[in-house]
Every structure is written in C-alpha cells, then in structure tokens.
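Internal ticket - ligand job 237, 2'-O-acetyl adenosine-5-diphosphoribose:
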Amino acid sequence: MGPYRDIVILTGAGVSAESGVRTFRDNDGLWEEHRVEDVATPEAFARDPKLVQRFYNLRRAQLPTVQPNDAHKAIARLQKELDGRVTVVTQNVDNLHERGGAEGVIHMHGELCRVRCVHCGMRHDWTTDCTQATPCPSCGAAPGLRPDIVWFGEMPYHMDLIYTRLRACDLFISVGTSGNVYPAAGFVAEVRRIGHAHTIEVNLEPSAGVSYFEECRHGMAGELMPPLVDELLKKGQ
Ligand code: OAD
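stdout (structure tokens):
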C-alpha cells in the first residue's frame, strides 16, 4: 500500500492521554468528577452557568501544565515531511497538536482557548478565566461569553471541509478515539463508502468501530505513532 499523498488523521482524547489529559470514557463515566450531562450540554449551561464556566476554566488552566507527547510530535512531523497533504481533524479541545507543531488543525468540537459571545457571535482567543461577569470584548454584553466548545446536542464545526477531505484522502488514520460519538465515529464508514483510501486504527484497545478498519495497531499512541510515521515517510520517498 502507498505511497500516500493525501492523509486525514482523526484524533480523540487518547492522543492526549500520555500528556496527562484525562479521557472521557475511561473513568467510570465521570470526566474530572463530573457527569458529561452536567457540564457539556447547552441545558447544563442554562441551568448552572457558573459550574460550567468553572469546569472549563479549570480545563483551560491545566493546558500550560501539560506538554505535547510523541504522538502529537509524530503527527506534526508527518505533516511537515510528507510529500503531500496531511489534514489533522481533532475532537480534542486542548491545544497540544498545535504546540506539538501541527498546522491548520481542524477542531471539530471547538477549543478551550476560545470563547464565543452568545449575543454578537464573535469569537475571542482566551487563555484566562471567563465568568458570567466577564464582558464580551466586542459588544460588552455580560453575561454573554461561553466556552467555544461544541456540547452534546450542538452541531460540530467545519463538517463540509472535513467531509471534502475525507472523500479526497488516500489514507485515513484514527488515533485515540473510542468511536462512540458521532459524527466523528462515522468518518471511517464514509471513507470506506467512497472506497479508495486505506484505513488504520491506532488505539489502546479495539474501538467501537474497529471492524471498519482494514488495519489496526493497538497500544499507546505515543509508542505507535512515531514508527507508523517513519513507515509512511519511507513509503512516500
Ligand atoms: P474517549 O474517552 O471516548 O475515548 C478515548 C479512547 O482512547 C479510548 O478508546 C481509550 O482506550 C483510548 N486511549 C486511552 N489512552 C490511550 C493512549 N495512550 N493511546 C491510545 N489510545 C488511548 O474519547 P473520544 O473518543 O475522544 O466531546 O471522545 C469523543 C468525544 O466525546 C469528545 O470529543 C468529547 C466527548 O464527550 C465533546 O466534548 C463534545
């Protein structure tokens, strides 16, 4: 197989696990001591905005304390050195791909380091705490800012671009995602439907979508990604 010239890499929480960022489904259904429905839905924000803001403030404050790992770095190296295009689509809201050197990362579930005004719609880069008293830098409304995170029941970002890249790619790699949350969980099926791309799963354990992948490598992303990238670069020479 290969050489590959147009690669799409989908990542999930598992790619950041070795950096010390907790995954969602490996802790008895609790995410940093909260049920997902209590912090990651529009209803939760309407019911208890202070709790939700505090939750995301803590996640945002954690970012400078964690570092990109070998999986993030390997993906960035592939992007730089491959004679072709590598699109990184992530479900993660951290900034570890960028800090590992990746460019043009598509954050389909939003980003911790951005907030959005529910009144004027403007987005702002944000690295500090945000509260219900923080005025929107654009329109001044308070409360108005919310984390720019795609919560359950909301539409993921950049779907047109993602599907265009999925249909064009010749290799699709899924790294560190349990395959439970759609639409990302359905990307591999879409790639197979089009029919011309190879598909590889890299995950600690078989994901919910494992049967869709032609090739699977099970183990730690930080250990499996560097040799996979070496192979792809060698094939591409
Ligand atoms: P999950 O927590 O559902 O799955 C993480 C996957 O990574 C699991 O299958 C683990 O086995 C695997 N894993 C853990 N450590 C790993 C390692 N070191 N190397 C490789 N794999 C490892 O996370 P996601 O699939 O990303 O949505 O979850 C998808 C979405 O559900 C998230 O984006 C989030 C969540 O609710 C929103 O916040 C909107």
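Auto-summary: The mean pLDDT is 95. Residues 90 and 107 are 5 Å apart (CA to CA).
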